[in-house]
Design goal:
Blueprint lengths: L3 E5 L2 E3 L5 H9 L5 E4 L6 H5 L9 H8 L3 E11 L2 E8 H16 L13 E6 L1 H4 L16 H6 L23 E6 L4 E5 L6 E8 L2 E6 L35 E7 L3 E5 L4 E6 L3 E8 L5 H18 L10 H13 L3 H25 L4 H27 L11 E2 H6 L1 H18 L9 H10 L1 H6 L3 E2 L1 H15 L17
Parallel strand pairs: 1-11, 2-3
Antiparallel strand pairs: 3-12, 4-5, 4-6, 6-7, 7-14, 8-13, 9-12, 9-14, 10-11, 10-13, 15-16
Helix pairs in contact: 3-4, 7-8, 9-10, 9-12, 9-13, 9-15, 10-15
The protein binds 2-oxoglutaric acid.
């Protein structure tokens, strides 16, 4: 029995869409959309593709052949995903070309000769080739806290496995995917319940989407395991409500970008030889999705080892270690991220106040944006507090002086300033003034009265209130809307 398709994903001409329309209709409402007209000037679209729309695989071997990449064997399931192997880009390209020659000559079908379709996934291309500038992230997807943060910090530092030079494999969420016709990605929802965008440099993809309100339908009776391939003969006994799921479908063509909202399960098939670029990201609109997932995964991690609680010296520590291993971060990591991102927004507000004579109107829009960021962080900090998530973790606090002295933090501020500048069409402030900013910041009432400059979670909540009150913006509850058509 096949799946039930309830409709198609909307396609829009992004050149006629403003950022504020995108926010209102898709990002805030958490709805998928395909966007056309955003890839006109991408170098990737010229260098990586022949005029007939086929991928120029030789280009990859010649220029990036030595890169080590993760390749999924689309025919082999391992745990909940496809089996992965590591190889060089040259090896991957050779395998692809060999297979397609055999196919053209009619000598084999992939599977009958034991050749599985291979799919290169999660290649951290931008991190590895920062000079090459294959593409520019469309403005719609620039409010990206995840990659901005990861350009300067690690999400999780495991003291046992930490290697300072293992930068590329765990550094960001900006990827290239490459796969021959027939390669595919099993059903999943994205890491951290982030948003993602995926751009087809060449080829076509079929996407099947299930809205978060129906996600229980792809889970088993215990709400533990989920369906791997929705086109399999899915067992009704194991997944009793799978047949009731109603899917949205989309065929994404070359030069189209799909926006994947938070928490939507999706399965993806390459209908032709396809190269795509995709990013995962989150911001004030979906931050609560990240926290909800973390909390749910924490409860699961705890439940899993409940029976050894009494014999465990540090039960909470073990839960947090397991959470980081399974989800990619734990409560401490998330709190560290929140506090640093929060302080960067306050620094940016200070910077704006200094420069606001230049452009009152734009500045006030940026101030609203920053205030909204701060409010969304504050809301999550309050939730973390209310579930007692940080209880027992005496090490969790924000030390303002130490943070301001950290070069990574100043880089984070510079990155945030660049993004705000792009989004709100502001000239970038002079980063040399950051020393003054530090002085400005230390002048803030809430920091002066705190004395030590060290904030625990409940103090951070008050700090955010005061920073918004002192530094302008609105109270941060309003949505930031840009008035101009600024999307393209
Ligand atoms: O293109 C693919 O095969 C999978 C991409 C994906 O799942 C995503 O961008 O979220």
């Amino acid at each position: 029995m096949g799946i039930r398709i309830g409709g198609q994903i909307e396609k829009v001409n992004a050149k006629e869409l403003s950022y504020s329309e995108f926010v209102l209709k898709y990002m805030e409402k958490n709805q998928p959309v395909v966007m056309i007209g955003l890839m006109d000037d991408w170098k990737a679209c010229k260098d990586w593709v022949f005029d007939n729309g086929k991928p120029n695989l030789q280009f990859f071997s010649t220029h990036f052949g030595n890169s080590r990449v993760q390749v999924a064997d689309c025919g082999t399931k391992e745990f909940t995903d496809q089996k992965r192997v590591e190889m060089s880009v040259s090896e991957f390209v050779d395998h692809w070309l060999e297979n397609s020659m055999e196919e053209q000559s009619g000598a084999s079908t992939n599977l009958s000769h034991g050749h599985h379709v291979l799919y290169l996934k999660d290649w951290h291309f931008v991190k590895e080739y920062p000079e090459y500038l294959a593409y520019t992230t469309p403005l719609f997807f620039c409010d990206d806290w995840l990659n901005l943060y990861l350009d300067n910090y690690r999400m999780h530092k495991d003291p046992d496995t930490y290697q300072a030079n293992n930068e590329i494999s765990c550094s960001d969420y900006r990827f290239v995917y490459m796969g021959a016709k027939g390669s595919w990605t099993p059903l999943h929802a994205d890491v951290f319940r982030s948003y993602s965008w995926s751009a087809n440099v060449c080829g076509r993809k079929q996407w099947l989407f299930l809205s978060p309100s129906q996600c229980n339908r792809v889970f088993d009776r215990n709400m533990k395991g989920s369906v791997y391939n929705i086109f399999d003969d899915v067992s009704e006994k194991e997944f009793p409500s799978f047949k009731e799921a109603t899917w949205l479908e989309c065929t994404q063509e070359q030069n189209e970008i799909i926006f994947v909202p938070s928490g939507w399960y999706h399965q993806v098939h390459n209908l032709e030889d396809t190269i795509s670029i995709n990013h995962n990201w989150f911001n004030s609109y979906n931050l609560s999705w990240v926290w909800d997932l973390l909390l749910r995964d924490y409860d699961e991690a705890k439940e899993y080892i409940e029976d050894i609680r009494d014999i465990c010296d540090d039960f909470e520590g073990l839960c947090q270690r397991n959470l980081a291993a399974n989800t990619g971060m734990n409560f401490n990591d998330f709190y560290f991220f929140l506090t640093h991102f929060c302080l960067a927004n306050v620094v940016e507000l200070c910077c704006l106040r200094r420069n606001c004579e230049n452009s009152i109107h734009s500045s006030s829009l940026v101030a609203q944006h920053l205030a909204m960021n701060l409010r969304s962080v504050q809301k999550i900090v309050l939730e973390i507090e209310s579930v007692g998530g940080l209880a027992g973790n005496r090490g969790i606090f924000l030390d303002i002086r130490e943070t301001l002295d950290d070069p990574s933090f100043l880089n984070l501020c510079t990155g945030l300033e660049r993004v705000c500048g792009m989004m709100h069409k502001l000239k970038s402030g002079n980063i040399d003034t950051k020393k003054d900013l530090v002085d400005d910041l230390m002048d803030l009432d809430s920091i002066r009265t705190n004395g030590s400059g060290v904030f625990k979670a409940e103090e951070l909540v008050i700090f955010i209130d005061k920073a918004i009150a002192n530094l302008g913006g609105t109270n941060g509850d309003e949505i930031v809307l840009l008035s101009e058509r600024d999307g393209a």
